[in-house]
Amino acid sequence: MESRSVVELCLENEARNLSVYAFHTADTRGRERPVVPCNLRTEFQRDRDKITHCQSFRRLMYKTQVFLSPTGDHYRTRMTHTLEVTQIARSIARALRLNEDLTEAIALGHDLGHTPFGHAGEYAMQKCFDASFTHYKQSLRVVEILENDGQGLNLTYEVRDGIVNHSGNNTASTLEGVIVNYADRIAYINHDIDDACRAGILTERDIPAELRQILGEGHSDRINTMVLSMVRASEGKPKIAMEAEIGAAADSLRSFLFERVYHNPIAKSEESKAQDMLMYLFEYYVKHPEKLPDMYRRRCGIDSVERCACDFISGMTDRYAIEVYTDLCIPKVWKGVQQ
Description:
This protein is mainly α and 339 residues long. It has helices spanning 6-17, 43-52, 55-59, 78-95, 100-109, 118-128, 135-150, 157-164, 175-198, 209-215, 219-234, 244-262, 271-287, 294-299, 305-314, 318-329. It folds into 2 domains: 6-262, Orthogonal Bundle (Hypothetical protein af1432); 271-335, no CATH class. The chain contains 16 helices and no strands. It is flat, with a radius of gyration of 21 Å.
């Protein structure tokens, strides 16, 4: 009898072991462009690899999470946030016997379109380009169009759906995509507290006592409480949820963070400068589209110049945006360059 491929064994394992509410890889709606099947990796495993090997994923290492250009090596970046979301999401998916590969691919790709300087960059693009601009829509644009020199990553429908619906009031079409939405919030609520404490803006004892009593006294305890609550509330059900008391406490903790951290003048002292810088770059490239990199210049024949300028700037890392702005605005003699 002919031996079965690794992929066939993986699909058989899914059929045998996953929950009836899991999305099975065999049921994927596929890709916009057909590809030659792989004998070693399922379609969602291939998507995971496409994402982790792309340029946008590597740039996450140098994009702000909350604190702009902090002094210290241990503050989160958009990359470490993505990895924490992925770990939390996979833990939940495994406990619920849902599709870990699909969950992982969505989590790894969910922030690929995030701007430099975190949400400050997102607000800048809303001001100068389009009020409806969001990082999750841009993440979809990255994987569908901008990556791979304008060819996109050609991901499966379910991964793209999970990426664009990971935030806000959007709902993914799979339970695995909904898990990433929850995992994203669990991750940033808890690691932003950790970073705020490191920055001296907050201490664990500043968190309201009633929230500490419900959610736990530390970073690990809170994550464990939230994850276990999701597993208890979702197990054996066709929906993903968090228990009412834990969910309400998590929402209150998020509101606390907005008041004490996200709107804190210390944490946000440089944000207006970052926004002004990105808006200047936007106006510059709109006026000088010939200065855009080749791929974005080519897109000007398809999209508006404004759209292409936004795409280029959104893909920048924090430090590259500063470097470009410095080259455009600061006389070289001021930078100590030898003439």
